[in-house]
């Protein structure tokens, strides 16, 4: 069973990456979001834990300024009307000692859909600054069309420029803010 201190943790933005990958013609484009805020609340029974994350969609970075500007437009994220993407967990299921499935509600462009993330617990330990950190890696997949993001350009042979499936990849480090004094971890 995974041993983690019960308490409230904040994502460390300098040691966390919220990334994605999507098919583009004959290759794959990768990107990440630079600005986000997230809280993990761990409980003595790890399956009672929860996660909340808010991502600033205008902080998208695919390494190409023109593409990033297009992704911010109404064709894709429409950040003027919908500046944030949010995730709120609804459950945690333990698959093995260090592997979990976190279910939750993902909201993009005002559309909320359930999603499952496969999460690997990477450990807990002290840092050089006197704090306590926890690490996790998560992955999942969504259909962008389910969130109303259906812009595309048709190509020869019934193909399209941009794939529908988006692979999500999150590597996170969080810092303990407050320990749950009532927990018997």
Chain-wise SSE layout:
Blueprint lengths: L6 E5 L5 E8 L2 E7 L2 E7 L7 E7 L3 E2 L3 H8 L11 E11 L4 E10 L2 E16 L5 E12 L10 E2 L3 E2 L1 E18 L6
Antiparallel strand pairs: 1-4, 1-13, 2-3, 2-13, 3-6, 4-5, 5-7, 7-8, 8-9, 9-10, 10-13, 11-12
Task: Tell me about this structure.
The protein is mostly beta strands and 185 residues long. The chain is 4% helix and 58% strand. The chain has an eight-stranded antiparallel beta barrel with strand order 1-4-5-7-8-9-10-13. The radius of gyration is 18 Å and the shape is elongated. The protein starts with 6 loop residues before the first strand and ends in a 6-residue tail after the last strand. The mean pLDDT is 93.
In short:
Residues 8-175 form the Lipid/polyisoprenoid-binding YceI-like domain. This protein is mainly β.
Rg (CA only) = 18 Å
Based on helices, strands and strand pairing, what is the structural class?
A: mainly beta
Number of domains: 1
The tally of beta strands, per DSSP, is 13
Whole-number average pLDDT?
93
Family: Belongs to the UPF0312 family.
Organism: Aeromicrobium camelliae
Domain Lipid/polyisoprenoid-binding YceI-like: 8-175
Protein name: Polyisoprenoid-binding protein
């Amino acid at each position: 069973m995974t041993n983690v201190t019960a308490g409230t943790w904040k994502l460390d933005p300098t040691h966390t990456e919220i990334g994605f990958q999507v098919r583009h013609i004959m290759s794959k484009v990768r990107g990440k979001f630079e600005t986000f805020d997230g809280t993990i609340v761990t409980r003595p029974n790890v399956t009672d834990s929860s996660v909340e994350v808010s991502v600033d969609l205008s902080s998208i970075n695919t390494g190409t300024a023109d593409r990033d500007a297009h992704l911010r437009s109404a064709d894709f994220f429409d950040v003027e009307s919908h500046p944030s993407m949010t995730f709120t967990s609804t459950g945690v299921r333990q698959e093995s000692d260090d592997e979990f499935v976190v279910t939750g509600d993902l909201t993009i462009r005002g559309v909320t859909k359930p999603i499952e993330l496969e999460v690997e617990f990477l450990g807990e330990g002290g840092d050089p600054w006197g704090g306590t950190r926890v690490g996790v890696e998560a992955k999942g997949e969504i259909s962008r069309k389910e969130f109303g993001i259906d812009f595309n350009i048709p190509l020869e042979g019934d193909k399209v420029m941009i794939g529908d499936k988006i692979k999500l990849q999150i590597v996170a480090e969080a810092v303990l803010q407050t320990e749950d004094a009532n927990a018997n971890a």
